[in-house]
Amino acid sequence: MSERHPLASRAYAEALAGREAVIAVPEWGAHVTRRPTPDGLCDAIGTYPLQVFARGADLAGGLQRLAAEGLVSMVMVPDPLLCPAAGLARDFAVCRPFKTHFLVEPARGFEPSKHHRERIRRGHRRCDVRQVALGDHLADWTALYDGLVARHSITGPAAFSEAYFRMLAAEPAICAFAAFVDGACAGMTLWFEAEGAVYNHLTAANELGYRNGANFALYDAAIARFMDAGVMNLGGGAGFADADDGLTAFKRGFANGEVQAHICGAVLDQAAYDRLSAGRDGTRFFPAYRAPMAAAAA
After folding, report:
1. pTM, 2 dp
2. Rounded to the nearest 10 degrees, how much is the dihedral formed by the CA atoms of 81, 82, 85, 86?
3. What is the pLDDT of residues 193-221, one digit of tens each?
4. Among candidates 114, 129, 56, 101, which has minimal Cα distance to 261?
5. Where are the domains of the chain?
6. Domain 111-226 belongs to what topology?
7. Sheet bearing 175-181, strands edge to edge
């Protein structure tokens, strides 16, 4: 890993979960988050949306450290561009396909779908798209993302706090693009470059943006900006599995490649894990004791 990967920093983990919840894992060159379990113990989860590791990371050594912390289990989604599943499966007992991530691979030539090309042209006609400093437009971004959370009833890690966005605004790697319609901010998208790849981190628009194709123009501008920087990971669709939702269709229309992300987990305290998971043996959810009751019954 390069000297400073945005998702591996302590500041990033603290903005997600708070200072007291963060555990440094030197063997991985990264941080994870401690979570309380129902019986007063704790387990750990990787950083959202992706866990990154230093080059040559000692995966087994990191898991041993977390076990020594008294944690019940560890679960994460490693960056599929940096962490091939074959290597992960040697150390993580659970290594299952999770979601497909859509890629733009510049070496293969970039041409969005016909549907997207039409909407990109409309978006650029109607929107003034600029690269901006997130800190200068933080109020606009927060309003856009709050609207996205309300529109889609987003909960969990993606329901970010104000502190999280302030941290992003202070992160030099974050590259923001904004779309304006008649001077009003209609949409923004946040990207960053790391380890020879580029990542679309977050995107949000309001009704004005949707009506005027802001998201299409924003993605087109960002892809053009990073065309010489390496493979671009647009991420996957919404939810916890592949689905033919609107977000998937939107990203697929820009993509010319795919990569499979995996969910990886390890039991660190077998006795505690078995006790917490009693009655949920049939679920493939990991850790089993955190499975929604409907999933556990299925």
Report:
1. 0.91
2. 130
3. 998 999 999 999 999 999 999 999 999 99
4. 101
5. 6-98+262-297, 111-226
6. Aminopeptidase (3.40.630)
7. 22-25, 30-36, 42-45, 71-76, 257-267, 94-104, 231-235, 197-205, 184-194, 175-181, 128-132
